[in-house]
Amino acid sequence: MSFVENLFKDLYQEKLLTYRVSDLLIILSNDKSKDNYICISIETNLNTRRFCYLTLDELLNIYQLCPVSERCFYELISSEQHVKPYIDFEYYIDYNPDIRDSRIGAISCLKILHLLFDFNMKYNYTQSDNIDFVLDKFLALEASTSHKISYHFIHVNGQFIFENNQTFGLFFKGTIHFFLRIIAIHKCDSFNLDQSFEKCTISDLIDLLGESVPVLRTCCTKCYVYSKFITISELAYLLVLNKDNQYTLAIDLCVYSNNQQFRMFDCVKKHKQNPLVISSSFVSTQSVTHSYKEILKYSLLTYHESKDVSLLCQKNNQFAYEHSNHRDQTTHEICELINLNKLNDHMINFYANVSNCKKTSNHSRSNGSSCLISTIDMNIDSMDLSMKEIVSFIEKIITNDPSHLGYIRSCIHGNRNPNVIFFNIGGEYRFCPRLNRHHKRNTTAIFVDLISHKFTIRCKDPDCKNTNLIWHKIE
């Protein structure tokens, strides 16, 4: 048993660590005071996760007793919890040697979020490296190393929160699409793409812009998106090269899923020595004036003390506010760049939204998921009833999470055992049973035994190949 598990056993015997997320959620569903709890997962020495729930004071107590090197904690974000806006910004330094200042792309993220959540018509927006007024609304955390840039930006003291992680994910993906399209349609002496961009996915736009990224960064420093607050050049730093030498987003769009586990403040990943701490590159009022407990509190995505906030929801494929009784309903309608009406119109007119999409392009990118539903390349009508039920069952699994929509890429019988069918899954469904989460790049297959009608999910990551196959009954 690990140090942390023994610590929990000694302190909170009544809150035994569970092995499955579902068990924890069942426990909390029977507790009327569950809103006061913070759900966390703990990475163990066996590379598995244990789950529990704590109050803020209990969590702080654990922090004080547990050394940072043993503090492998992640905040569990379920679909039942409201969430603050946040961003996970990261890229590998070795694959992007032309990026001399890692702050540029990160500042673009902060400016985008500011325009969305804290825009003030009275402020004189000018091009400037001084973003102190933006940082006042954000907690900036960092876990960068000599090989990787890694920032977490969390919006604090805001006037509204999102109904759940998936809704914010759809909202933010639509916003990213909005800005990528702005880059694509803008024209200047150095850049001019003469084609239509209607219904392009995020991946499509990344592909179209990839070859022009160096030009956009160096030549579009005077191409302003809004007043003189943000430029095309700055936005181009949101696109970075991955290990396959392909352009992708520096923003991880895979974190906006149900039961997401997000690394917590001043914690490490197992066998790593770079805790997620206050960023020295983005110093805000919160990091200077607040106590350790206050920073921990602000860093929690699902912890909210103020009741006087509005809730941003998705209803009938449209984003809308549910206003508190005390808040002026015009508060959020002053932004002239992106208000909800404009974002909803953009989603309908230009964005291949997951809620109404029928099929996908032939490929997708891990950080650029948009429309990812496709039909299996088989004649469904010719299948027997049993096979149709299996296909329907598989499709229900891989389309259950809007942030990780998948499709059946191919289907083949086993060579050694023809009673086993292998469903190769495409799109963003990359669930790994060993990690209990989705991979960013490695794909997934689902095995179905036609005799027992049992299935298992198998990750195609070589490091996970020895995972024991756990079969579940199809019901």
TrEMBL record:
EC number: 2.7.7.102, 2.7.7.7
Catalysed reactions listed for this entry: DNA(n) + a 2'-deoxyribonucleoside 5'-triphosphate = DNA(n+1) + diphosphate; ssDNA + n NTP = ssDNA/pppN(pN)n-1 hybrid + (n-1) diphosphate
UniProt GO cellular component terms: mitochondrial matrix; nucleus
GO biological process, alphabetically ordered: error-prone translesion synthesis; mitochondrial DNA replication; replication fork processing; response to UV
Annotated keywords: DNA-directed DNA polymerase, Nucleotidyltransferase, Transferase
Example GO molecular function: chromatin binding
Protein family membership: Belongs to the eukaryotic-type primase small subunit family.
Protein name stated in the entry: DNA-directed primase/polymerase protein
Organism: Adineta ricciae
